[in-house]
Amino acid sequence: MMFRTQSFLQKNPVLRNKEYLTFIFIRFGLSFALTMQFTIVAYWIYHITGGSKLALGFIGLAEVVPVICFSLFSGYLVDLKEKRNLLSAVVSCYVVIGLGLFYLTTSYAASHLPKSWVIGLIYFFIFLGGILRTFLGPTAFSLIGLILPRQQYANGVSWSSMAWQIGTVSGPLTGGTLIAASGIETGMAVVLITEMIMLALVFRIAKKPVMKTTREPVLQSIGEGVKFILKTPELLGAQLLDMFSVLFGGAVALLPAVQAEFFPQTEAFFSGARAFGFLRAAPGIGALLSLMMIAFFPLRTHPGKKLFIAVAGFGISIIVFGLSRNFYLSFFILILSGIFDAVSVVIRSTILQLVTPDDMRGRIASVNTMFISSSNELGDFESGVMANWLGTSRAIVVGGCLTLGVVITTFFYNPKLKNFQFRGQE
């Protein structure tokens, strides 16, 4: 047993770093709280608006506007600021948002505020969360690069992604269960408490040196980050591939409609809010399984080709999910989509860590946030509009087909990404 433990730690040296362990626990806690919050808000909005699919799309729109507006500027600030204190400020603001959403779930708010105000305030808090997201991603990305030595980046990204995915599994499952058992108020209370605990843990991480000390004009500094990505084909290709696959494959945004149309409230165990919670958690379960395999069998060879296979598998999974009317098949297919998505995330994140200079991490990560976060939220909006126009099932299938089109196009037009290798970059 001792030999197996030592062998495991030799393969995963980052687990000997106590500060890194604190960091990934914070990653887990924030993922747990924020995905539970998203699950509750999506279910809440869908039902408070009388089953409006367009209202689900507006959740994404409310978050994508600040992401597009603030992402580049946030990266400029992240590069100039101390990362631990910046993370504590971001988490503190998440606590304030959690408190506001919790208030809106209470009977006091329901009796004193008109429904239109409640809906408007929910979207307002989502908008504020979008601003925070532009700081959270670059700050966490920069922090992991300061906690770990360069040769441990790939291993660190895998475990960090696994911690995040454990949260994305347990958050929706807990949220769906709490909605079914106690209502949305209890769920939001758990979100708030979790965020407060994570805030306390942030201060167990030591302050880090600021790698960039010279202040350049804002636009010039931001432009350097954009130029670096544009002149690095493997990085640009990975970003575009992920952005468009997420943009077109946003089936998760329509899960409240999928649950209501295909798995309504019945006597069956997997129905109603519980079915929604399990379906929302399924991609995270798949991602977790995938990341556990990657931890034991790292992606060392042909990462570029594996990235294309993973995104193609994700697109096919979305198509099958759109055609399914069986809960167990839908659940399994969403698990598969999570498996493929996790592989692409690990490869893309490792490429990002390896090719980014230390003094540009905040700006490059902010561009990454704009690519990925905007595509997530724009994908939610696009899915809501498409579902309102074509119907839920057709919208999901069309999105999966478009994802496959993106994979084929990128495969033939970006040979550097296709042939990218981790060796030689470390």
TrEMBL record:
UniProt entry keywords in alphabetical sequence = Cell membrane, Membrane, Transmembrane, Transmembrane helix, Transport
Q: Which molecular function terms from Gene Ontology are attached?
A: transmembrane transporter activity
Q: Which CDD domains match?
A: MFS_MefA_like
Topology of the protein relative to the lipid bilayer: Multi-pass membrane protein
Segments crossing the lipid bilayer? 20-46, 58-78, 85-105, 117-149, 161-181, 187-206, 278-299, 306-323, 329-351, 395-413
Q: Where in the cell is it found?
A: Cell membrane
InterPro entries from the entry?
A: MFS_dom, MFS_trans_sf, TM_effector
Q: Which domain of life is it from?
A: Bacteria
Q: Domain (Major facilitator superfamily (MFS) profile): give its ranges.
A: 231-426
Primary subcellular site in the record, as a coarse category = membrane
List, alphabetically, the GO terms of the cellular component aspect: plasma membrane
What is this protein's record name? MFS transporter
Organism encoding this protein = Haoranjiania flava
